Amino acid sequence: MKKKSGSKLKINLLSALAVLLGAVLIMLIVSVLLADKRQVRAMQTTDLVQPTALATENTPEILTEPSSTPEPTMPPTPIAAEEFGIQPTVVKASNWKNWPVLPETVSQKMIDIYLLGKENNRNPGRFSKVGDSNSVMPSFLSCFDFGELGYVIGEYASLEPAIQNFKWSFSRDSRAAINGITAMGLDTYHTYEDEVCWPYESPTSCEYRLWEPSIAFISLGTNDVYLKKEDFELHMRSLVQKSLDRYVVPILVTKADNLEGDDSFNEIIAQISLDFEVPLWNLWAAMAPLPNHGLRPNDVHPSFSNDSLCDFSGADLKSYGWTVRNLTGLQALDRVWQLLNP
Predict the structure, then answer these.
(1) Closest C-alpha among 166, 123, 122, 173 to residue 145
(2) Of 88, 98, 169, 295, which has the fewest CB atoms closer than 10 Å, so is most exposed?
(3) Distance CA 279, CA 100 (A)
């Protein structure tokens, strides 16, 4: 009985040992499997960052502080001024009283007309007068053709080159400057007592054909107030178009009087200036500060000094309409001429 008990004990020990070895074996297998999984994950992570690793290969590791400079960003989209309630500046004919006396710029259109004129026999040393009694010889600008006997330049010596460039245009008896004339009268066809102008040729077309000017003053409206505004505007636009068709740069002129009572004719002139992109000499604004707006009492013609119409050296510029008209007219001519020849 003792022998069997010992044998049984041995069997039990061997069984326990076998179980223990089996458990150890299972643990080893599990450990190997877990290690394989970790290796696979490590390889996958390496694959994800491999481009960076390649880019920095053989580059020593440098530790840096995080940059304080923000990443560049796209500039914000500009916001139109209108979104803030700010309207861009727009030149309006209704605001003509506040326009400058002299044109500040000329349009590219006028420069092109002027250059085409040079190619088509327009004379850059000549201008013409297209207007009523306030444009006829000798009162308007004629003094500049007579040197010291005609004018005293005073502090305006910078205008002398223009006087020399346009010599003999100042005192020319223009075929398109006529007492009592209207825009219609200068735009439509006429018959003439002499044979200088062609039969049924308008005075303006005749003047441009004879004198071949590069620039022309168009100064009308005083006599037109007794006609329809629509007719005045129609023929003023036609006169401007006639000028451009003949490569003549027109300078439109506001009138100093207000015979119509509401200044509407000057607004028409300003609107035409904008529509055709032609320069405007704001005579109304130049004469506004003078006594009686620079006009003779109960008249539409400028006031004048008995001594001179063109003495710019003294107080005449603060007193007489003709003195201001002649100076600012010369300045307007000079300004446009200079702008057309930059």
Answers:
(1) 166
(2) 88
(3) 11
